[in-house]
Amino acid sequence: MNPLIKKTQPFNDQKPGTSGLRKSVKYFKADNYLQNFIQSIFNCLDKLEGSTLVLGGDGRYFNREAIQIILRMAAANGVGKVLLGQGGILSTPAASHIIRKYEALGGILLTASHNPGGPDGDFGVKFNISNGGPAPEKLTNAIFETSRQLSEYKIAEAQVSPIDKLGTFTLEEMPVEVIDPVKDYADLMESIFDFEKIRELVAAPDFNACFDAMNAVTGPYAEEILGKRLGMDKHALMNTQPLMNFGGKHPDPNLTTARQLVAKMYAPKDAPQFGAASDGDGDRHMILGDYFFVNPSDSLAILAANARKIPAYQEGIKGIARSMPTSQAADKVAEKLGIHCYETPTGWKFFGNLLDHNEITFCGEESFGGGADHIREKDGLWAILFWLNLLAVKQDSVENIVRKHWAEYGRNYYSRHDYERLPTKQADEIMRHLQSSLALLPGTQFDTLRVEKADDFTYIDPIDHSISEHQGIRIIFDNGSRIIYRLSGTGTEGATLRIYLERYEADIRKHDLDIQETLSELIELSVKLAKIKEITQKDQPTAIV
Ligand code: G1P
Ligand code: ZN
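A: This is the predicted complex of the input protein with zinc ion.
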């Protein structure tokens, strides 16, 4: 085959963020934008020729077109074989598993996760390495540098690949194996959890559950695993048809965006005992009980505390990691278990080394992410199945499990306040102002709060000793409370300032307070310290999670 060499102009804005390159669809569709980024990835992979790559996405608008382009580019760049999810579909956790299982060089995942889809929505490209996890910063930086100088890309002649039929076809000389996107992943889940026990729970006449796939990628996974293998009936599975624009919904599992599920779970009468949702690409999870919300930071802590109840973790867990802004609930569990709890920067890529070197078994983020060492991505359905397995073993309600956990470990009241779509200039000014006030903060008393430590979080990877700086401003008080500030690395419009607030309460008599009320002193102080009102003229955050 003679690949076509196309001349192109470099872009200077293809820097991958917290989780790959995310832009609006309009960017990706125009002017070789996708082609340049893919070629930049290929140019940074030493062993690309003859290698196996995994390819798939969350099914959002432009997924199918992008798959056609990437296949032609893979063939022209000498890739040995592509494993493609049927119809171009692979959830992020399934892609991670498939890369590992078939020992691929890596995978290209087409997703903008929980960002809205459709012609006016977002698109994204992520490269995962051979351990199944997101490319580390060293590689994403190299890709970015390459993209800034790229002058040509390679692509095979225009042709349409049959991506919907299982089996193998060849594109030029490159075999493309179209695989079932669900089966391998479903088998993996069955090897971790006690499916028989969960089946019994699901079949019990007084138990009702529901799952909202939000018209995103987990639909087919839920139908196979929750429906066929575990016996949940059709009515329990909501919005399982993946749609290119997610049915106009925002496929982010939280109390504001998962409206349909929340209405069901908070119904005054006959609410199911268990409710769950996942996001666009299937790596996030939200857990609800009857009129009850499980904070994701608590979810990580509870899963860790109960690990031994699950077949795969009967021997116990080796360690836990949480992203820095995630509440310290998991730290309490680690302390009791006598294991280490690592604190990493935001983004799943920072867990990879710890998982690869058996330092940790579980990891999680406050942003509805939880996962374990079975793959190298966060895993929504894994967390949901974990909770179902736990309910089956404990024969207790979601709310009771959480309350008993708080009684034992104390409660970490927690909330995140987001200021979205800020002009970049304002967001930078806030961060600069905070950075410049750090040195003076330690020892300062604000009403009942005394600052113990204030810094700009730097992470030194314990395995490869790589250093990641400026990962968020931390203000830590002597009672363990924290205010954290950081700018989002996944947004596509202006800047998003995230303020994370946390207060620990050991006293069981105070475990039923209003969250925002309990955090109010910290909230007020966080606004004051960052000069939010002066700089943004905003009185309220745009979102409270
Ligand atoms: C957000 C979350 C972060 C998560 C990422 C990808 O990133 O905060 O925890 O890893 O999405 O799902 P952010 O927009 O804050 O950079
Ligand atoms: Zn996601």
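The mean pLDDT is 96. The pocket of zinc ion (ligand 2) is lined by residues 92, 113-114, 279-281, 283-284 (CB under 6 Å).
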